[in-house]
Fold each of these.
Amino acid sequence: MEIWITLIVIMLVLSGLSYRATQKAQDTRPMFIWGFNSMAPVALAYCYWGTGDFGHKALMIVFVGIYLLRMNIVLTRWYVNTAAAKLGGVIPEQQQPILAVMMVNIFGWLYCLPFYWAADQQGPFGAMQWLAIVVYIIGTIYHFGSDYQKRRFKQNPNNRGRLLNTGFWGTSRHPNYFGDFLIFVSFGLLANHWIGLIAPLTNIGQYYGDAIPKSEKMSGERYGEQWENYKRKVKCFIPFVV
């Protein structure tokens, strides 16, 4: 019971702070920053109340820590090159604080739910933990690598008006989203419980139900025929598959 009371308090505080910060900024950046970073206190709360050993809890915190370090770099230093930055002209300002609260709760409750079971794991790492490490590494390479490649591409003035379609972006139209999905798959694997599926299922549902359609629409409007040719050659999400 203590863990749930702790989480309710954390989520109420973060929801209020994210609402106020986004309302004051009148920009989409705070809602993403607050949403992603809500994972840190939630993961720590699961570790504090969990009955697992140090090794399993440490692995969970390392996963979250590396992920949030990378996302904060993207959301601060590289933000202008992200699809999220373009949503300011798509999402009405009055809706942004509400979406900030929604993001905090999606990340804090649904994406972190596997940690409830992960924090209770004990003993040597088993097949699920080692598989989680492999999936996490692949996801991190795809997620960070594709964002870094896009940033380098956008910084080159010779690429103005051109579509990035090589490297990671030649394997999938949304390689950063695919990498992100793998990371949440790894979170689910840490749980060693079927309910861990809630994290990757929420993630892929969010992408296919919202982020990918918006991103593809904006890209189609910006790049026209270049985008249509790209769509015919490169798969949408899973590299070379679908």
Amino acid sequence: MRASAGKNAWACFLLILAGIVLGGFIGSLTEGVSFLSWLNYGQQFGLDSPIILNLGILVITFGLHIKITIASIIGVILGIIIYRMI
């Protein structure tokens, strides 16, 4: 990602991340509403069982689970639009 004309790449990243989080939150809120339940439609992927690294005195557990929904995609698009407007 290259910053152009004084725009900060971190601002773009944070707006996209905020769009993902808020979109996921809105999608989970509208899950029970019949005419808005399509916002929570999506796909889940990740590690089913976490990877455990046992170093004797230190145990580290790695795990990743991602759920992409229609609402989070809309949130990303809105984040990009807001970034272009500022």
Amino acid sequence: MTPAAPAAAGRALPHPARDEIRLEGVLHALSDPMRLRIVRELAADGGELTCSDFDLPVTKSTTTHHFRVLRESGVIRQTYRGTAKMNGLRDDDLDDLFPGLLDSLLAAAARQAARLGG
């Protein structure tokens, strides 16, 4: 894993380089309903959101775990901006590596949410 873009000293988080992102890691990360929810919210926003922007029905430590799995699989990029940890989709990397995958998964998740009323 390579370090993130320069951040406050000692606050850079490790991210996989584009060529280190593996399909099975991405699919595993997106197989969890909470992580898929995070990705859907990031995609809907189209920019970056802080961790506190997400209202997940899980503990803070579980939320932290979900963000770490998404970051380590290459689905999101996390950077510190002051004291806030910003989260953004690595959609360009994912689209280059796996064309159409993210769009297909997001569309399928939206259809499922509509079908299940969530």
